[in-house]
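Dissemination and training. As part of the outreach component of the grant, students in the summer workshop were shown how a complex can be specified as a set of sequence lines and then modelled as a single object. The example used during the hands-on session is reproduced here so that future cohorts can follow it. Participants entered these lines:
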Amino acid sequence: MPLSGFTILDLSRVISGPFCTMLLADMGAEVIKLETLPDGDPIRGQGAMREGLSYYFATFNRNKKSITLNLKEAEGRKLFEKLVLRSDVVVDNFRPGVLDRLGLGRERLRQLRPGLICASISGFGESGPYRDRPAFDFIAQAMSGFMSMNGRETDPPLRSGLPVSDLIAGLYAALGITAALLRRERTGHGDIVSTTLTNGLISFLSYAASHYFATGEVLPRSGNDHPITAPYGLFNTSDGAIAIAPAGDEFFTRLMRALDMTDVLNDPRFANGQDRVKHREILNARVAERMSLYGNAYWIEKLNGAGVPCGPVYSVEEVFSDPQFADMAIEVPHPDRAPVRMLGFPLRFSEAQCRIRLPSPRLGEHNEEIYGSLGISRDEIEALRLRKVL
Amino acid sequence: MPLSGFTILDLSRVISGPFCTMLLADMGAEVIKLETLPDGDPIRGQGAMREGLSYYFATFNRNKKSITLNLKEAEGRKLFEKLVLRSDVVVDNFRPGVLDRLGLGRERLRQLRPGLICASISGFGESGPYRDRPAFDFIAQAMSGFMSMNGRETDPPLRSGLPVSDLIAGLYAALGITAALLRRERTGHGDIVSTTLTNGLISFLSYAASHYFATGEVLPRSGNDHPITAPYGLFNTSDGAIAIAPAGDEFFTRLMRALDMTDVLNDPRFANGQDRVKHREILNARVAERMSLYGNAYWIEKLNGAGVPCGPVYSVEEVFSDPQFADMAIEVPHPDRAPVRMLGFPLRFSEAQCRIRLPSPRLGEHNEEIYGSLGISRDEIEALRLRKVL
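and obtained this result:
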């Protein structure tokens, strides 16, 4: 596997960092999750639980090992340095300065272990006026401009229901770490990699940013309408709703034929893209009327057959009931309980396939294995635990 | 830089693939963009234009070289094979089967060039019932369940205004390619990497998926409300709106103190998280009343000072006016025109920094350089062009 043999010390918590290290673990890295007693990563207690296990935690922490460690104790920091000596990457999503205040700043760690890669995810980064502000997904969505582009023009800006800033930052960090490992493989040099919840989302402004840079104008939110294409959007059928996205003249012609609306093709009001956007309401009403005559299955078959991009709006349940997406839900064996269902692997390799090697760990489950590998005996581990170092 | 010295042949168009190869090019890869005459990548004509240049194209294709090549001609396919022999990665976002029908299937390319990495991004992947369907961002948002979680409970599902499925798939593909290059560096083996618009978004269902897997229940959309936290959301001030996200008792207490609403802390209706969600409307109304008394600047200073996560809802223009995000807009020199403003680098390295080496290319700008490196003379290039091979 691509990251087999690399060891990642993971100080991160909740979502963005754990998502990053899950991606690396799925590709073969040994991820050692450092947690603090009594509760460990707060996500262990978040989201829907089943028989005492948070399925949210179980997903984001599969393929990882857990050890406990108290960095507020000098002995704990000494142990951390020993762990660094046998690691390739240290990941955190603390606020900037936290590791420095513990005497474990990145420059110091890199002196200790030449070639080390340090990666961090924070709300706003290491510099700038908001460096020390707490940041959560919702705030990042608001400040990045993402919310300003989400929602209908006549409604207030809307957050995405899913924690996009955390997940995008986690993906960027995984990319940066892998790239830094590749560079280290070729040059021997480590690096410091960082990304932020806000910058990740800003990079997603894409066409909205380039429109602003080119014209100085800000595009409005447009709900389910496309700013420069019509018809486009969500249409109710007799038993559901489907999304239609016929961008360009060719797709438009195909759609009109499939809907038996060929009269529209000779109507000057709908002659080109601009005309169709101008008369969007009339056109959408005509399409809506036709679509209401039959059900989802009929239209999806018919429109896809005619080469018109379309699809149903699935609920989460429907996603995981569709054979197309069957392998995006996997069952992971857990000791002493029924297998846990969770999200699969969106990234596929034909040779070096992602796979599950370990279920999510119990808090401190790998203390003996990992501290043992540092030469610490079972008795010493117990003594460290009593002194609240682990 | 992490990807210096690697050559990527880029057959991809529009957004998902070009975003992937932009990320790799920003990290140092030589990306050779293959385009077809007369128009090249359709995105050259999309989005806001300024003095004949699409700023959307310019952003997604910085740091790349462009050559023209017609794969429908046998001579063009021969040239493609020669290019493969000097490349490390081939990227496409064609529908499955297109390259096979041209006789340029991935297995054949990998025989030709051992160690080659082939990467593809498609709507639904290489198998399953929807393999051959056209897919666009909107359809992927609908079918992945993403739309079902975006919007208010009482409104229809809403797409994200930004092309999240394209961008997330591009990020996954960049991660997969970099991981495969790392593995090749260590083992000599190439690989086939793939991801899809739909699976990338499904992987973002995160807590909504784990909730469903744990309970069998589907969470409703919740607009700007948080399903298990209140107060939370967007509140109007006297001159704008700000997002507040005080998750947990500690942040709630801080918020109530900062708002001079300490009476709420002794009110049994708001004693714990569940109570506050239950009485969300009363609580939100009280918060809204207080917030309306002062402007954005006052509250952001006050609440951040009190350690409450909060921030303004920025328009795209406001994002790029805030000093915190100054380096997320960069100016790229282009020959014969004013510098082009575009999005910066969300991923930072302290040693191997991302940087601009080339502006986006004119169509076929690098024909002489690249075909010249295959030993093809200027006259032969001209002859190939006349025969419509380039």
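Residues 164-187 of chain B form the longest helix (24 residues). Students were then asked to discuss how this feature might be tested experimentally.
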